Amino acid sequence: MFEIVERQEMAQGTIISNWIKAPKIAAKAKPGQFVILRANETGERIPLTMADTDPAKGLINIIYMVVGKSTALFKTLQVGQGYLDVIGPLGQPTHLEKVGKVICVGGGTGIAVLHPITRGLKQMGNYVYSVIGARSKDLLILEDKMKAASDEVMICTDDGTYGHKGFVTDKLKETLERDKDIKLAVCIGPVPMMKFCAKVTQEYGVHTLVSLNPIMVDGTGMCGCCRVSVGGKMQFACVDGPEFDGHQVDWDELNLRLRSYVTEEKVSFDQFKAAHAPGCSCSR
Amino acid sequence: MTEEVKAPKKEKIPRQPMPEQEPHVRARNFEEVPYGYTPELAMKEAERCIQCKDPRCKQGCPVEIDIPGFIKLIKEGDFEGSIRLLWEKNSLPAVCGRVCPQEVQCEGLCVIGKKEDPVAIGNLERFAADYQREHGKQILPPKADPTGKKVAVVGAGPAGLTVAGDLVLKGHDITIFEALHGPGGVLLYGIPEFRLPKAIVAQECNYLERLGVKIEVNAVIGRSETVDELLERFDAVFLGVGAGLPVFLKIPGEHYIGVYSANEYLTRSNLMKAYEFPAYDTPIVKGKNVATFGGGNVAMDGARTALRLGADHSYIIYRRSEAELPARHAEIHHAKEEGVEFLLLTNPLKFLGDDDGRLTGVECLRQELGEPDASGRRRPVPIPGSEFVVDIDTAVISIGSGSNPLLTKSTPGLSLNKWGYIVADPKTGKTMKPRVWAGGDIVTGSATVILAMGAGRLASNSIHDFLTYGW
Fold first, then answer.
1. What is the mean pLDDT of residues B215-219?
2. Half-sphere exposure of A266 (CA within 13 A, CB side)
3. How does DSSP classify residue B146?
4. FRET pair for B344, CA 20 to 30 Å: which of A210, B309, B387, B471?
5. Interface touch B223/A89, C-beta < 8 Å
6. Is the pLDDT of residue A159 over 80?
7. Does A170 touch chain B (CB under 8 A)?
């Protein structure tokens, strides 16, 4: 078992952070790489990009949003309990280099994935603009960490409860307009957010990295489930990615494939909620 | 030459069939198709073996099992003796008895087979292993004293398990590294439950663990640790990682929901037990009309799995004719019995889908057989204007595998051929990299379980020589 040594609820319990004992993975993992987790014998293999590592203590950090049965099951795991399987590090690490000025854009739990990359880019000596957003103030995560990893941070909320009222694309566009020296954009979040960020950066000709999250099974390039079209070519996110050139990604195809199991996911989640309903009105 | 004096003719015993589930019943469940021999049936079948002095069957076995020897012991009712003899050459008899293509190996060479049906060697091997598992004591074969030498085996599939089983008996300290969360490789994720129950795979792996083999799952060598790092801790490394790269048809529409590689379809069903969804969390599209593309054993597994997942129609779409189907006859026969429909000489052109991105059909072109090609098989030639659409909601692409570069790319010093497979000496499994051996599909490309085991045997002999004599 891979033990959870620290657990934190964020964004009103919709987002969970786990520090997990996995010394071998912690020793090797680099920003941008992911792990696959399985809670128990009947569980799914769920890929999650690591939010942080602590090699000295042998720990890895994952931060996930509760969106279905598997993540709801993950949420039930407390400190001292753990995952049956954690596999990794998987995928290609982010290519971190000094390019001058960069802009890092994160939405929702995407900020968790973005943070180690932002920190890495800053450590390489880049000037880092960051734009982070959420639907509302209560749902925004890792603001302090992002501030520590950036030179300038802009905050957006859909409902205007904090920072700029509107989407991260607004601030992205504004910044690109203001500073023509930005050489790289890293945009991580929900598919529509990444798609529209890539559209904006394309107008300005700024190279853009995105981190994709298609459905996966093995995570080692064996099954082809996570295939995405990038520049018209079939790529496997698990081994060729998860990061790709945002201007080359076929976003509509990715969006369709993410909906492969909407019906099954609902069946599974409803069953889980029914089984865990007593005493928990929130899931009704 | 005087004519041999013939012994009084005994009553001829016909080959004993294995009792099996009725086709229409089994096509809807995931339980194993044949039930296996009873001791009585096994002993009766064993009597058919004439105990050749120079047995040809043995020459057909890639791991050189003493076939007449173990059959004789079954005939005498010494079932424990027979499994002990099998174990001397084969750590996975319950698997081989089920999935080896005996008709082109041992049974294909059996002299009885010249006049009548050959001795059912595979069925008997399976019986010996099953009987031991179900009735026998927890016996183990004798093991050599510890040598102090350590060997890392990468991949817990048929090749790796064979290497581990061989070398642990010779006293070496063995650790297997497996990328998935359970050992078995293709035996676990690929071959369906109804052909090879996963409990049996687990027991064969457990047998190795009882012998002292350590199995580390969730270890993706190439990512979590490199081969060079393993070489710092181990005296020798064997690479048996399989081919493991899905090949797609490269026709339009392969992104539609419901289009699977055979690897994905079978992994979801077998490894993740999606057929038990929602009791198991991993879903699978339970199509009503399923087409499996390809004609090999994996394709038959896909088409038969589709029936068990509830398909009304399960098609095999293959571009050549029936004679060229590469699958074992037994698999084709089982598939037909269960109601799999064969659309032969049919070439897929493109997948069709709806606005939600769900697969609705496949447009195909009929073909006819033309002149023989380089492989000697008559080449299929398209018939112009013969396009037609098959309505399907699930497609399983089973046209072979490529070489997965995950491990090879991260291992400097290995020599790869133009397809990305590892170059290894066919007699020893030695690679161009010192202290590294390789065998199975990552060397040969997609082949069979027993060929991978045979490669494992050759490599284990070579590794043992190296560890013992230094060459």
1. 97
2. 4
3. P
4. B309
5. yes
6. yes
7. no
Return the minimum-mean-pLDDT range out of B10-19, B139-148, B354-363.
B10-19
**Residue B339 reports pLDDT greater than 90:** yes
Task: Report the DSSP beta bridge partners of residue A155.
Answer: A132
Q: Mind listing the pLDDT tens digit for each residue in B303-314? A: 999 999 999 999
Candidates B299, B399, B296; CA nearest to B348 is B399
Whole-angstrom distance, CA of residue B326 vs CA of residue B329: 9
Task: Write the residue in A224, A229, A264 that is nearest to B277 by C-beta.
Answer: A264
* Chain A residues with CB-CB distance to B245 below 8 A: 221-222
Whether A259 has its CB under 8 Å from any CB of chain B: the answer is: yes
- Report which of A175, A235, A260, A86 is spatially closest to residue B285, judged by C-alpha positions: A260
Binding-site residues on chain B for chain A (CB distance < 8 A): 179-181, 189, 217-218, 220, 223-225, 244-246, 248, 254-255, 257, 260-261, 263-264, 267-268, 272-273, 277-283, 285, 356-357, 404-406
The encoded tokens of residue B243 equal: 């081919």
Nearest to B271 by CA among B223, B311, B305: B305
pLDDT over 50 (residue A284): no
How confident is the model over B45-89, as pLDDT tens digits?
999 999 999 999 999 998 899 999 999 999 999 999 999 999 988
The residues, ordered by sequence, that sit 6+ positions from B92 with a Cβ below 8 Å of its Cβ are: B158, B161, B162, B165, B204, B453
Comparing CA positions, the residue from B132, B133, B168, B136 lying closest to residue B151 is B168
Q: How far apart are CA B439 and CA B444, in angstroms?
A: 8
Nearest Cα to Cα of residue A118 among A103, A107, A100: A103
- Who among A24, A261, A264 is closest to B224 (CB)? A24
Condensed to tens digits (0 to 9), the pLDDT of residues A33-77 reads 999 999 999 999 999 999 999 999 999 999 999 999 999 999 999
User: Cα separations (Å) of A19 from A60, A197, B218?
Assistant: 6, 30, 19
Strands B173-177 and B150-154, bridge-based pairing: parallel
**CA nearest A250 in B: which residue?**
B255
Q: Give the residue among B392, B150, B172, B142 at the shortest CA–CA distance from B260.
A: B392
C-alpha dihedral (A267, A273, A274, A277), degrees to nearest 10: -170
Identify the bridge partners of residue A79 per DSSP, sorted by sequence position. A81
Give the H or E element holding residue B186. Answer: helix B186-189
Q: Name the residue among B188, B205, B159 with its Cα closest to residue B267.
A: B188
Predicted ipTM?
A: 0.93
- Alpha-carbon separation of residue A215 from A47, A238, B262, B279 (angstroms): 8, 10, 16, 20
The alpha carbon of residue A241 is apart from the nearest alpha carbon of chain B, in Å, by 13
Distance, in angstroms, between A173 CA and closest chain B CA? 31
Distance CA A17, CA A27 (A): 20
CA A72 to chain centre: 17
Using only C-alpha atoms, what is the Rg of chain B?
A: 23
- Of A86, A56, A62, which Cα lies nearest the Cα of A7? A62
Q: Pick from B277, B276, B329, B327: which is nearest to B302 by CA?
A: B327
Give B207's contacts (C-beta < 8 A, 6+ positions apart): B91, B140
- pLDDT, position B135: 87
| pLDDT tier for residue A282 given thresholds of 50, 70 and 90 | low
**Could you tell me the end-to-end alpha-carbon distance of chain A, in angstroms, rounded to an integer?**
31
- As a whole number, the mean pLDDT across chain B is 93
Q: How many CA atoms within 13 Å lie on the side-chain side of B230?
A: 29
Whether the predicted pLDDT of B471 surpasses 80: no
State pLDDT tens for residues B263-287: 999 999 999 999 999 999 999 999 9
Length of chain A: 284
Question: What is the rounded distance in angstroms from the CA atom of residue A131 to the CA atom of residue A169?
Answer: 9
Place of tokens 């003899």: B85
